[in-house]
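Q: Can I see a sequence and its folded structure?
A: Here is a first one.
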Amino acid sequence: MAMECAEAAVQLGITPIYYGVIPTPALALKSIKSQIPSIMITGSHIPFDRNGLKFYSPEGEITKSDESNILNIDILFDEITTFTMLDASCDAANDYISRYSSLFESNFLLGRKIGIYEHSSAGRDLYAKVFSLLGAEVVSLGRSNDFVPIDTEAVSEHDINKAKQWSRLYDFDMIFSTDGDGDRPLVFNEKGEWIRGDILGLLCADALQIEALAIPINCNTGIDKCERFSRIKYTKIGSPFVISEFFSLKKDHNRVAGFEANGGFLLGSDITFDESVLTALPTRDALLPALMLFSTLGTRKISSLVETLPKRFTHSDRIENFPADKSNVIIRLGVSEPQVLISEICKIDMSVKNVNTVDGLRITLENDSVIHFRPSGNAPELRCYAESDTFELAVSLVNDSLKRVLYS
């Protein structure tokens, strides 16, 4: 696919630059720095037989308007019969490494032991370099030559159990990984416990002293309850919707960012951190939130940071190979008769308190628990998110609801 895209560019009179296998945010950073558009060929957590294209302008991620324009234009190309071999430039990878290795002192992670769950991540070699340059002892884990789909919102029990085993075996301070294309972090604390993406984003934003946030509607309500930000703008799910709020937030605030429930962190403005300028990177980034965990840690453990936050627990899962039309039936029923969906389909013995349709169907129950149904945007899946005062109840809400929806 990369060679086909390159040949298509040549037919348009454009000289392509190939940056090799790198994380998506590394390509986006290079695109912004060089003021040229870019294309990322990517397979992340989507089914094995699919790939995607991500487009970047010199300002960062393209907008929904840009997406529409791309989908509605037809350009005729000559048939591609031969391919020119692409020589990879290391410039984008080196710029990304430098962005974070120069942000901290060289002994920033001295004495820390970090496991890198490599699997088939595009950034697996790059991450080890960054952590090592900052003084950490790095241990490589789970490297694979085959594609491994990692969904950072619905982490498998297999990966959760592996992280706990590795933590006991190696006594890590943290295990770091990402999805396949490196824009969504997967982070485990010193006990091998998964840190959910929105909690990771909250801790990162707090450490960076962010003033205003844009976050999707499915993020943990504890972000609002902790009262650490001047303004929080809730959006539809998806990074383009988060990015679209940055312009208005920057009118009144100097330090603007966003993050998603999948953990991808988007820096919406240039900020000063520890006397260094960290330039805006308005696309999902996996490395920054993981590094920022250590900036306020001192001698404490990562788990102690999470314990300071409001006690709201989330869980999410999905039904795979679930047709979009069936998902839409569930959503329509919940919009028109939410109590019927909750009581008769999901068999939840609670009253509906509020219904939010910003993105999918988000229902708040009488005890302030939340259950949120949403069809996936890039796969035939129905996702379910839940939030409650206990993790056990959040898990129960998701598992029971998906099971009953599946067989309804």
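Q: Show me another, different protein.
A: A second, unrelated one:
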Amino acid sequence: MNWASPQTLPAPAARRSRLNDPHDLSHAGAKTMTKTKTVLHADDSGSVRRWVAEQLGGMGLKVVSVADGDAALQYLQDSTCDLLLTDLEMPNLDGLALLAAVRELPAHRFLPVLVLSSKQPGEFDPRRRQGVTGWLVKPVDGEHLRRWVRRVLPE
């Protein structure tokens, strides 16, 4: 079979033929390459951090795990993420104080935030809960967590 070189074909056909050339990446765009989404997870429990990393890593997400709100805030001052998943009761800076600080950062003002806590949402002043996208109560099963994350991070 004779293949015509891209230079001998009319322009539209030449562009189509390059799509099949594995060495030509000029056609690579948003539909062919997707950015891996990053979840920042703040929890003082190492076992919870490992479990969440396993659950969300299995979805193809990059999980950055930190042990408290201070570390999460420091990360967000230098980097970006697509979702913040935080516990409430942590040393140094608790989850609601972290949320308030995050909302003061212009780059993260609208960052989706999921709370993963043993506390019910009704246990907190509603004004302090403003800006929370969703609330999951521990213990939570993996499918419920993944369902919330898919809801908050559409493809």
